[in-house]
């Protein structure tokens, strides 16, 4: 699994619910891109609790209070801004960040 090279197109911003999330259009590493207001963040799409994806097979992503992404398997929640676990069975773990930037409405690797 390898991180995307800088400039790799990951997703159109319009294809990501706000607030919400969507898997990136990138196969070499599972990445989820999350939005809440003006915040756009990307993380490796692996829950640190048991290593399952944070998005459902449909790509739908559960968001609570417009600021937490919620793992659909056992309910761990993570702060969209920081990736830190905010509750549930993942303890003090955090999501692994992926560097991105938004360029002309497109999320690209930074
Ligand atoms: S795998 Fe995410 S909370 Fe268990």
Task: Tell me what the structure shows.
It is built from no helices and ten strands. By secondary structure, it is mainly beta. It has a single domain, classed as 3-layer Sandwich (Rieske Iron-sulfur Protein). The strands form three sheets. A four-stranded antiparallel β-sheet has the order 5-6-7-8, with no helix packed on it. The structure holds FE2/S2 (inorganic) cluster. The site of FE2/S2 (inorganic) cluster has 12 residues, from loops.
What labels would you give this structure?
mainly beta, binds FE2/S2 (inorganic) cluster
Please summarize what this structure is.
By secondary structure, the protein is mainly beta. It has no helices and ten strands.
Write the layout of secondary structure elements.
Blueprint: E1 9-12, E2 20-23, E3 31-36, E4 39-44, E5 62-64, E6 68-70, E7 77-79, E8 85-87, E9 100-103, E10 106-109
Antiparallel strand pairs: 1-10, 2-3, 3-4, 5-6, 6-7, 7-8, 9-10
Residues 47, 49-50, 52, 71, 73-76, 88-90 line the site of FE2/S2 (inorganic) cluster.
CATH topology category name: Rieske Iron-sulfur Protein
Number of strands: 10
Task: State the CATH class.
Answer: Mainly Beta
Sheet with the most strands, sense and barrel status: 4 strands, antiparallel
Helix/strand order? EEEEEEEEEE
Strand order of the largest sheet: 5-6-7-8
- The overall average pLDDT, rounded, is 97
User: How far apart are the first and last residues' alpha carbons, in Å?
Assistant: 17 Å
> What is the SS-derived class?
mainly beta
